[in-house]
Amino acid sequence: MSVLAVAEHRNGELRDVSFELLTAGRELADAAGADLHVAVISGDAEAFAEELNREGVDAIHAVTYGDEFNHDVYVQAIEALAADLDPTFLLAPNSVNGLDYAPAIAESLDLPLVTDVIDLAYDDGLVATREMYGSKVETTIEVDGDRAAVTVRPTEWPPAEGLGDAEIGVVDVAIDESAIGSTITGFEEAAEGDVNLEDAEFIVSIGRGIEEEENLELIEELCEVTGATMGSSRPIVDNDWLPDNRQVGQSGAVVTPDVYIAIGISGAVQHVAGMKGSDTIIAINTDPNAPIFDIADYGIVGDLFEVVPALIEEFE
Amino acid sequence: MKVLVTVKEVAQVEDEFEIADREIAAQSLDYDLNEWDDYAIEEGVGMVEDGVADEVVSVTVGPERSEETIRMALAKGVDRAIRVWDDSLEAAELLDPSAKAKILEAVVEDEAPDLVLTGVQADDDAFGATGVTLAERIGFQWAAVVNDLDLDADADVAHVHRELEGGVDEVTDVELPAVLTIQTGINEPRYASLRGIRQAQRKELDVRGLDDLGLDGSIADGPLTLTEMYEPETESDATIWEGDAGETAGNLAEYLRDRGVIDA
Ligand SMILES: Cc1cc2nc3c(=O)[nH]c(=O)nc-3n(C[C@H](O)[C@H](O)[C@H](O)COP(=O)(O)OP(=O)(O)OC[C@H]3O[C@@H](n4cnc5c(N)ncnc54)[C@H](O)[C@@H]3O)c2cc1C
């Protein structure tokens, strides 16, 4: 029996989630009495394999084809490895690239797929925990049958540490280039904007609770009287109410201010990914069950249209 | 060029809710068009308006209630709509991505689109897997999390940006036919106009059962079983300031002054 975890890298570096996958994979392998195999595909795969040789890893397979991620290459490489290893469980990161290949490989190997998993257990079968309804509820899902593919939410497992004694092998997979239907032509970084949220010490961030573009004036005024820098959750930027560089989160800025005030923001995982490193988090939200309160140090359960004007008054 | 847009009606949970039998009571649920699909619809409708595509059709797997949502897609400019449903699907608590893809695959076979647009994920169960699973099943190319799309129909290629983590876009050429999963922010979804809403009433909304598609109810017996649903134990150790707006704002102001982040 084996668990096969597929590492992720970009721009010459393994991403943190790769090491978290090793921990999740080792736990699952222990519970199921399996070996932990790791695949690392493309880029400097051999060097990555050395780095992935952490405690608990039994074997690492480096597929040296191509540079950056390409889902067709990943699917073909994993198919080839699976033909050889016959893995019981396939683990991939629930990242943007994970979502670009994991469903395809699960379908092609006929594996049931559970995505964005935050906990895994094995009890004669796989039991996965995942959230629903914007993190308001958790669910457990039992997988019938012996096998499964799972994508694992980043930062839920600690990274694997220590030097391992895995067997490292370079695998020569014959990639069928005629089956590659997408070609990556480059990468683009978001343009720099008027502020650098990453440097800000005090951020007031606004979410969909603001309802209308006109209402943003209220938050602008709060920032003015307090000297805070304004950030936002994604919907505000999607609506073009604020420029791209104001977005905090997985696909925006990762910020680490002394104080982060989240106003009318629910605390979706992709938002939290960008601000959980703040020293002090303060949430203002009408919903006492909003997930943002789970990571907040201070909170006000209340209507921003009442609390913010009162706050502005305090500083005038 | 024909575009198929997959659309889902999603449930949003109100602030106060109860869970019974692995479900949230209906009175605490509000139904709406999935946010990501709204952007996919706009992208598809825009292609017809720009003369890049000839027809845009929407497909949803959902009960009768979801027709409100489908009418919204029609009102926004989708040419016609298909809704697939079956009592066996009603009974299934959880449809896995593969089951959804099998149903959509049957619709793709009937409709023969050149391009399928889905949302990145559905707001309620957030599996984020249906589009890519479908692509694999039907042998289309694909790209997940697309936040920029420029279709070159003559060259049969979609020039896309995939939104990676940390504000970096991957720039990729995808051969057609393809499935693209559309990210929010790619465009500005329109509101349905009054005229659009009136026209939507006259547009074709084709309801199909699983047998019409050559499938049967066994599709609902997927490998995933939802065994528990519960409110997560709060990990919060936040200090909640109590009182009216004036009092809580006073607490917060005092904290900010003590903390030294405010000069005033
Ligand atoms: C691939 C991917 C990448 C993403 N990247 C990001 C990202 O980088 N950043 C990001 O933010 N999101 C990102 N998202 C989106 C994310 O999943 C959420 O949809 C988004 O963060 C929700 O924003 P919100 O909290 O402002 O809105 P909602 O979730 O709608 O929350 C609004 C909140 O406001 C509260 N509220 C309403 N009225 C009031 C009032 N009067 N007073 C006080 N509170 C009120 C509500 O109780 C609610 O909690 C991404 C999603 C995907 C799939």
A few lines on this structure:
Chain A has about 325 residues and is of the alpha/beta class.
Describe the protein in words:
Chain A has 2 domains: 178 residues, HUPs (Rossmann fold, 3-Layer(aba) Sandwich), CATH 3.40.50.620; 119 residues, 3-Layer(aba) Sandwich (Rossmann fold), CATH 3.40.50.1220. Chain A has 9 helices and 17 strands. Chain A has a 9-stranded mixed β-sheet, sandwiched between helices. Chain A has 316 residues and is of the alpha/beta class. In chain A, helix 3 packs across helix 4. Chain A is elongated and about 70 Å long. In chain B, the strands form 3 sheets. A 9-stranded mixed β-sheet of chain B has the order 11-10-9-12-8-1-6-7-13, sandwiched between helices. In chain B, strands 2-5 form a two-stranded antiparallel sheet. Chain B has a two-stranded antiparallel ribbon with strand order 3-4. Chain B is built from 7 helices and 15 strands. The model of chain B has no long low-confidence stretch (mean pLDDT 95). In chain B, a hairpin with a 2-residue loop joins strand 3 and strand 4. In chain B, 29% of the residues lie in helices and 31% in strands. Chain B has 2 domains: 219 residues, HUPs (Rossmann fold), CATH 3.40.50.620; 31 residues. Chain B is of the alpha/beta class. At the A-B interface, helix 4, strand 7, strand 8, strand 9 and strand 12 of A face strand 2, helix 4, helix 5, strand 9 and strand 10 of B. Flavin-adenine dinucleotide sits at the interface of chains A and B.
